[in-house]
Structure to design on (649 residues):
């Protein structure tokens, strides 16, 4: 047998057999999710929209904190700016809400430049509160903006929500009302965003840039000594996370169709929940936020009726996980079993010693 | 508009913010821990004082004296049983744990005391003022400022004149070497957080006397405290007082121009200082 592996005795691999199986399962799940609106109820679609958007926010926060070491408590700024960019372009310029989502992401990206300029002057833990202050500034400034309702907020005009592109086609395709068609459209967009986010972050982490990111997180001095520009890597991650968070924020508020500064810049809704999702699921893994968002949704379904108790339980679980299993549910599971669905670790495969390479079996 | 009056009120408000900030500054200085629950612990202190006032019928000042040892114990226990376990090279675990504590405290207060706004009964002192001709100075704001100066004087004395302060400074500089000299860093950390909680209690007293509070006001207090610490420069308690005064001044001047700009003006002042002097006005610590 003259396999390529035996001709080149050493190879660097990131793929494992489990990850190949996980890849095929993921494709199957995605196909299922795409066709789901054909037979799922409207409330299930709305729940899945919520799960997918929270998952996307969690993936970007995880990229920042788990991989970039940048603990931000101010990501609600980008949700709010993305959402307000959508509302203002729809209300003031009469743009269709779907392309306005892209402008939401762009606005968040632009805002991230001055944000980063200030926040990167603060080190470590102070970076966290610094981002929070900046988010507060953004909220207070937007609350002064009378054209989009000032402090009380505003709604998307009916003329805009009723004529969103694709909704009439979706309505005739599935035979549903316009409002349900809007939910399906928002759901598909959330699905696309989540897939692009997970796929993009996975690709990023497996690329050269991802290696630089891990190096900076683990040891900034050592990373610098091999030529990694830590500041550039951090800026890159910060901007990517802002863009993704802004897009998600715009999409969330397109679906809600009603906005106020306190809701769109809410620390609890867009950062606290997201942090708990990532911490409970397992920080620094791509699987973690996926596990975390499912646990979070289950907890919410069980406990949301108890109001303040729900958040207390969430807080206690978060603290408990940090104390007892800091790598979260998925991290602990992965440590014990060695299973990684989205492996990013590079393994050296020595061809001569293992003539039957694992990757040949797929 | 009376500018002198505005400026005097702003400076005195700064005393309150310096009280918010001193505990945060102390804990950060000794163990590099940023407690995201700091603001919520201030609010918890205010509720504790309120509880003692209503249960025992004491004046808020006496009630705060009763609350002091309780809050010390809370801080000591919190550090010993929770925060000490997550302190280390990685800044992520302590941040996330204190963030969790913040959410838990906020919602426990919401559950236990409802979202209604509360106020500590200030009595006559709440409305008393000194007429200095050009300005009227409220006795309570003056007392707040005086307490802030007093707290900083005592803290500086403890830091530079006592064995405990020596242990604090040694642990802050190098915990490993300090432990070789017979200091137990973990016990020192617990004492420091206990003391920080006593300052929190004093801050809570004036918070409750001067304005109404509810379970949700904690995060904003944390932010003001944080801004005061950064403006002053890490490790300098007098700098923290100056930082508090700058935030207080910015807020009262902002509010005098347009009431909606009060909070925003404070944040803008903070960002301006960060822009011009990223390490604060009076930096001492190098980290």
């Amino acid at each position: 047998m003259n396999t390529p592996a035996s001709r080149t005795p050493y190879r660097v691999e990131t793929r494992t057999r489990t990850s190949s199986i996980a890849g095929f399962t993921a494709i199957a799940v995605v196909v299922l999710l795409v066709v789901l609106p054909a037979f799922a109820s409207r409330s299930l679609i709305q729940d899945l929209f919520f799960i997918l958007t929270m998952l996307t926010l969690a993936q970007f926060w995880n990229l920042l904190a788990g991989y970039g070491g940048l603990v931000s408590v101010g990501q609600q700024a980008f949700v709010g700016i993305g959402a307000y960019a959508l509302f203002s372009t729809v209300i003031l310029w009469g743009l269709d809400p779907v392309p306005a989502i892209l402008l939401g992401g762009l606005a968040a990206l632009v805002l991230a430049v001055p944000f980063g300029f200030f926040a990167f002057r603060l080190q470590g833990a102070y970076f966290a509160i610094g981002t929070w202050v900046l988010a507060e500034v953004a909220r207070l400034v937007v609350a002064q903006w009378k054209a989009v309702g000032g402090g009380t907020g505003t709604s998307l005009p009916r003329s805009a929500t009723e004529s969103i592109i694709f909704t009439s086609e979706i309505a005739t395709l599935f035979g549903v009302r316009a409002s349900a068609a809007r939910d399906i459209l928002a759901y598909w967009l959330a699905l696309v965003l989540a897939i692009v986010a997970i796929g993009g972050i996975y690709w990023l982490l497996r690329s050269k840039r991802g290696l630089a990111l891990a190096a900076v997180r683990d040891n900034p001095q050592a990373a610098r000594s091999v030529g990694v520009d830590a500041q550039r890597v951090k800026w890159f991650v910060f901007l990517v996370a802002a863009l993704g968070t802004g897009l998600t924020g715009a999409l969330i508020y397109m679906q809600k169709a009603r906005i106020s500064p306190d809701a769109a810049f809410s620390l609890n809704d867009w950062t606290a929940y997201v942090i708990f999702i990532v911490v409970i699921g397992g920080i620094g893994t791509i699987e973690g936020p996926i596990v975390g968002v499912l646990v979070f949704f289950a907890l919410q379904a069980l406990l949301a009726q108890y109001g303040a108790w729900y958040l207390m339980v969430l807080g206690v679980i978060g603290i408990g996980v940090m104390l007892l299993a800091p790598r979260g549910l998925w991290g602990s599971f992965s440590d014990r079993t060695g299973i990684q669905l989205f492996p990013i670790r590079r393994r050296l495969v020595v061809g001569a010693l293992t003539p039957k390479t694992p990757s040949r079996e797929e | 508009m009376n500018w002198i009056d505005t400026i005097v009120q702003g400076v005195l408000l700064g005393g309150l913010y310096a009280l918010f900030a001193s505990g945060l500054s102390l804990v950060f200085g000794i163990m590099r821990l940023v407690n995201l629950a700091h603001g919520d612990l201030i609010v918890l202190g205010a509720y504790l004082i309120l509880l003692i006032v209503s249960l025992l019928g004491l004046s808020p000042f006496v009630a705060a004296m009763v609350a002091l040892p309780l809050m010390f114990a809370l801080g000591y226990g919190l550090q010993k049983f929770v925060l000490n376990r997550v302190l280390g090279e990685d800044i992520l675990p302590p941040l996330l744990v204190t963030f969790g504590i913040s959410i838990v405290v906020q919602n426990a207060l919401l559950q236990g005391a409802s979202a209604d706004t509360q106020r500590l009964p200030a009595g006559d002192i709440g409305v008393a003022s000194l007429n200095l001709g050009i300005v009227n100075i409220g006795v309570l704001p003056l007392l707040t400022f005086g307490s802030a100066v007093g707290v900083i004087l005592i803290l500086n004395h403890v830091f530079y004149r006592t064995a405990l302060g020596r242990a604090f400074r040694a642990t802050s500089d190098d915990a490993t070497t300090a432990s070789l000299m017979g200091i137990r860093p973990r016990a020192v950390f617990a004492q420091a957080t206990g003391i920080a909680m006593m300052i929190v209690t004093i801050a809570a007293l004036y918070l409750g006397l001067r304005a109404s509070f509810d379970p949700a006001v904690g995060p904003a207090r944390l932010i003001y405290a944080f801004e005061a610490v950064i403006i002053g420069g890490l490790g300098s308690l007098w700098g923290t007082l100056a930082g508090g005064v700058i935030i207080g001044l910015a807020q009262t001047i902002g509010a005098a121009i347009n009431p909606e700009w009060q909070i925003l003006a404070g944040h803008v002042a903070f960002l301006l200082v960060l822009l011009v002097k990223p390490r604060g006005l009076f930096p001492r610590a190098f980290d």
